[in-house]
Amino acid sequence: MAELTGLADDRALLGRTSTAERVSDILRSRIAEGYFPPGTRLSEDSIGGALGVSRNTLREAFRLLTHERLLVHELNRGVFVRVLTIDDVEDIYRTRSLVECAVVRGLGEPPFAVDGLAGAVAEGQRAADGGDWKGVSTANIHFHRELVALAGSARTDELMRSVFAELRLAFHVVASPRRLHEPYLARNRQIHKTLEAGERDEAERLLATYLADSLEGLVEVYGRRVADAAQRTG
Would you call 176 helix, strand, or coil by DSSP? Predict the structure, then answer.
């Protein structure tokens, strides 16, 4: 599997101090990058072999990620990447709005260090030019991660790492990634340019509208998915 080949490449990140925390960091990143879609069963043997870690270490990593609501343990079946509900999506966006808007509001006086935002915007445009809409989604998450990083807070960065990983799980239900992500290329660029110009209040307004529109779109997709599932089982 391509996912396991990628994990084997991550093995060097463990160094000589292989710990459950380091393994969970790798798996969280892989979930955030879209390598493990919702509902995927995570094999202890395959992943442990790819990373070169013990079963106990891997189980502890799974436990940590279950606590972060990224994985779920099903009795007698194993560990799976979690499938989100509409309530989950709404809560993710509630958290995003509270944190991301507060970060922008608290930036202080310009100029702001927006090079990371510029890099994420360019990354997204390159992916779009190549028709890589999964890559556009990843670049979008990178943009918001860089936005949060403007706060200069390790605790906020850590909190939002899990939130952004959960967000990627939500994106997997979208039948047309291009339709979802393409409009936000321009909106990311606009927020970047607004912050580059030192217009913090306008950037916060743009961001709040952005997040509200994104939530509305995802909730609509989830609503259709729930209705379709009910029709199939009805």
Answer: coil
23: its two tokens: 């393994």
The Cα–Cα gap between 44 and 157 comes to 28
DSSP annotation of 135 reads H
Tell me the C-alpha distance between 179 and 199, whole Å: 29
Tokens of 86: 């509409």
CB 89 within 8 A of CB 215: yes
Rounded to 10°, the helix 200-233/154-171 angle is 40
Provide the sign of the torsion angle of the four alpha carbons 106, 109, 113, 114, taken in this order: positive
User: 203 with 104: CB under 8 angstroms?
Assistant: yes
Closest CA to 111 of 188, 192, 187, 186: 192
CA atoms within 13 A on the CB side of 76: 0
d(CA 230, CA 234): 6
What is the per-residue burial (b if ≥16 Cβ within 10 Å, else e) of 5-27?
eebeebeeebeeebebebbbbbb
Note the pLDDT tens digit of each residue in 18-76. Answer: 588 889 989 988 887 778 888 899 999 999 999 988 999 999 999 999 998 899 999 88
Residues 6+ apart with CB under 8 A from 179: none
Is the whole model's pTM more than 0.90, yes or no? no
**Contact of 159 with 99, CB cutoff 8 Å:** yes
Check residue 150 and report its DSSP letter: T
